Automatic annotation (TrEMBL):
Organism encoding this protein: Alkalimonas delamerensis
Protein name per Swiss-Prot or TrEMBL: Outer membrane lipoprotein Blc
Gene3D superfamilies per UniProt: 2.40.128.20
Cell compartment(s), UniProt: Cell outer membrane
Main location: membrane
Function noted in UniProt: Involved in the storage or transport of lipids necessary for membrane maintenance under stressful conditions. Displays a binding preference for lysophospholipids.
Protein family membership: Belongs to the calycin superfamily. Lipocalin family.
Signal peptide extent: none
Superkingdom to which the source organism belongs: Bacteria
Residue ranges occupied by any Lipocalin/cytosolic fatty-acid binding domain in the UniProt entry: 28-165
Name of a matching Pfam family: Lipocalin_2
Keywords, sorted A to Z: Cell outer membrane, Lipid-binding, Lipoprotein, Membrane
Subunit record text: Homodimer.
Amino acid sequence: MLRMLPILLLLTACTGTPSTVQPVTPFELEPYLGQWHEIARLDHRFERGLSEVTAHYSMRDDGGVRVLNRGYHAGKDRWRESEGRAYFQGDNNTGQLKVSFFGPFFASYNIAKLEPDYSMALVVGHNLNYAWILARTPTPSADNCLRYQQKAAAIGVETEDLIWLSDCLPTASH
């Protein structure tokens, strides 16, 4: 059993919530499903070079969520897709899920801010090195983008490192 402990710790290490983040509650999965556009993100190798990034969420037969991420890589002149699965980490009334794109390895998907009409969201991972601003449209208003950038900064995200994929660049950051 002691030999399994490092493996168990590795498998659960990426499913926490940053101490500055309180996942949204109440949360309803049904209105969250559907297409989202990536408006801004922190840089990571798995999305490097991608534009026009979308995430589509739908129900799985096992009660989880099917996650289909898609983005265009201009340098390679092709689209990239990645399919994963997500499940609630706690109760179904809190925007705190875990997502996996390969094998038994899960990462946190913490919804830190969400519009009442589910039109825009701020998502962070197990730490603040993973952050995304998502919207239902590819070009939300500059005011909304600024509010989400400010929320990200307030919880400790390095917002000067955000890569903006949308035309809604907040005026306060540039």
